[in-house]
Amino acid sequence: REESADISRAVLEGLADQLSEGEARRLAAELPGLAEQLQARRRRKKEAHPVRLGDFIGQVSERTGLTGDEARAGAGAVLAVLGEALSEEEYRHLTGQLPAEYSRVAQAAG
Question: What is the pTM of this model?
Answer without folding.
Answer: 0.85
